[in-house]
UniProtKB/TrEMBL annotation:
<dbReference type="InterPro" id="IPR002942">
    <property type="entry name" value="S4_RNA-bd"/>
</dbReference>
<protein>
    <recommendedName>
        <fullName>RQC P-site tRNA stabilizing factor</fullName>
    </recommendedName>
</protein>
<comment type="similarity">
    <text>Belongs to the RqcP family.</text>
</comment>
<comment type="subunit">
    <text>Associates with stalled 50S ribosomal subunits. Binds to RqcH, 23S rRNA and the P-site tRNA. Does not require RqcH for association with 50S subunits.</text>
</comment>
<dbReference type="GO" id="GO:0043023">
    <property type="term" value="F:ribosomal large subunit binding"/>
</dbReference>
<keyword id="KW-0694">RNA-binding</keyword>
<keyword id="KW-0699">rRNA-binding</keyword>
<keyword id="KW-0820">tRNA-binding</keyword>
<feature type="domain" description="RNA-binding S4">
    <location>
        <begin position="1"/>
        <end position="61"/>
    </location>
</feature>
<keyword id="KW-0648">Protein biosynthesis</keyword>
<dbReference type="GO" id="GO:0072344">
    <property type="term" value="P:rescue of stalled ribosome"/>
</dbReference>
<comment type="function">
    <text>Key component of the ribosome quality control system (RQC), a ribosome-associated complex that mediates the extraction of incompletely synthesized nascent chains from stalled ribosomes and their subsequent degradation. RqcH recruits Ala-charged tRNA, and with RqcP directs the elongation of stalled nascent chains on 50S ribosomal subunits, leading to non-templated C-terminal alanine extensions (Ala tail). The Ala tail promotes nascent chain degradation. RqcP is associated with the translocation-like movement of the peptidyl-tRNA from the A-site into the P-site.</text>
</comment>
<dbReference type="InterPro" id="IPR025490">
    <property type="entry name" value="RqcP"/>
</dbReference>
<dbReference type="InterPro" id="IPR036986">
    <property type="entry name" value="S4_RNA-bd_sf"/>
</dbReference>
<dbReference type="Pfam" id="PF01479">
    <property type="entry name" value="S4"/>
</dbReference>
<dbReference type="GO" id="GO:0019843">
    <property type="term" value="F:rRNA binding"/>
</dbReference>
<dbReference type="GO" id="GO:0000049">
    <property type="term" value="F:tRNA binding"/>
</dbReference>
Amino acid sequence: MRLDKFLKVSRLIKRRTVAKDVSDQGRVLLNGKEAKPSTDVKVGDTLEIQFGQRTLTVQIERLSESNRKEEVAGMYTVLKEEARKRDNEEPFL
Protein backbone atom coordinates (compact mmCIF):
# COMPACT_ATOMS: atom_id res chain seq x y z
CA MET A 1 0.00 0.00 0.00
CA ARG A 2 1.22 3.52 -0.77
CA LEU A 3 2.40 5.64 2.15
CA ASP A 4 0.02 8.52 1.43
CA LYS A 5 -2.96 6.16 1.24
CA PHE A 6 -2.01 4.43 4.51
CA LEU A 7 -1.77 7.79 6.31
CA LYS A 8 -5.27 8.69 5.06
CA VAL A 9 -6.95 5.30 5.66
CA SER A 10 -5.42 5.01 9.15
CA ARG A 11 -6.64 8.54 9.89
CA LEU A 12 -3.20 9.67 11.02
CA ILE A 13 -3.73 12.46 8.45
CA LYS A 14 -7.24 13.42 7.34
CA ARG A 15 -6.71 13.92 3.61
CA ARG A 16 -4.56 12.08 1.10
CA THR A 17 -3.42 15.32 -0.54
CA VAL A 18 -2.21 16.57 2.85
CA ALA A 19 -0.44 13.24 3.43
CA LYS A 20 1.26 13.66 0.03
CA ASP A 21 2.35 17.21 0.86
CA VAL A 22 3.73 16.18 4.26
CA SER A 23 5.71 13.36 2.64
CA ASP A 24 7.00 15.64 -0.11
CA GLN A 25 8.27 18.06 2.55
CA GLY A 26 10.39 15.28 4.10
CA ARG A 27 8.41 15.18 7.35
CA VAL A 28 7.73 11.41 7.17
CA LEU A 29 10.42 8.81 7.85
CA LEU A 30 9.86 5.15 7.02
CA ASN A 31 12.19 2.87 9.00
CA GLY A 32 14.50 5.84 9.60
CA LYS A 33 14.69 7.00 5.98
CA GLU A 34 12.86 9.86 4.28
CA ALA A 35 9.86 8.48 2.38
CA LYS A 36 8.05 9.67 -0.73
CA PRO A 37 4.23 9.48 -0.96
CA SER A 38 4.42 6.54 -3.39
CA THR A 39 6.67 4.44 -1.14
CA ASP A 40 5.17 1.02 -0.33
CA VAL A 41 4.57 0.32 3.36
CA LYS A 42 4.35 -3.14 4.93
CA VAL A 43 3.23 -4.60 8.24
CA GLY A 44 6.02 -4.11 10.77
CA ASP A 45 7.33 -0.87 9.27
CA THR A 46 7.95 2.10 11.56
CA LEU A 47 6.72 5.58 10.61
CA GLU A 48 7.93 8.81 12.18
CA ILE A 49 5.70 11.78 11.33
CA GLN A 50 6.45 15.40 12.22
CA PHE A 51 3.37 17.53 12.96
CA GLY A 52 4.59 21.06 13.68
CA GLN A 53 6.28 20.86 17.10
CA ARG A 54 5.18 17.25 17.70
CA THR A 55 6.67 14.00 16.43
CA LEU A 56 4.65 10.78 16.35
CA THR A 57 6.29 7.36 15.91
CA VAL A 58 4.03 4.42 15.04
CA GLN A 59 4.44 0.80 13.95
CA ILE A 60 2.17 -0.54 11.22
CA GLU A 61 0.14 -3.52 12.47
CA ARG A 62 -2.39 -4.07 9.67
CA LEU A 63 -3.08 -2.83 6.13
CA SER A 64 -6.55 -2.31 4.75
CA GLU A 65 -7.79 -0.49 1.64
CA SER A 66 -10.68 1.14 3.50
CA ASN A 67 -11.78 1.33 7.11
CA ARG A 68 -14.64 2.41 9.24
CA LYS A 69 -13.88 4.68 12.15
CA GLU A 70 -14.12 1.80 14.65
CA GLU A 71 -11.63 -0.39 12.73
CA VAL A 72 -8.80 2.15 12.60
CA ALA A 73 -7.49 1.40 16.11
CA GLY A 74 -5.81 -1.87 15.08
CA MET A 75 -3.94 -0.49 12.06
CA TYR A 76 -1.02 0.94 14.03
CA THR A 77 0.56 1.07 17.48
CA VAL A 78 1.91 4.34 18.86
CA LEU A 79 5.50 3.74 19.94
CA LYS A 80 6.44 7.28 20.92
CA GLU A 81 4.92 10.74 20.94
CA GLU A 82 7.06 13.71 21.83
CA ALA A 83 6.88 17.48 21.67
CA ARG A 84 9.96 19.13 20.24
CA LYS A 85 11.30 22.10 22.11
CA ARG A 86 11.64 25.30 20.10
CA ASP A 87 15.21 26.51 19.66
CA ASN A 88 14.58 29.98 21.09
CA GLU A 89 12.35 28.80 23.94
CA GLU A 90 13.72 29.28 27.46
CA PRO A 91 12.69 27.00 30.32
CA PHE A 92 9.97 28.28 32.59
CA LEU A 93 11.22 28.97 36.11
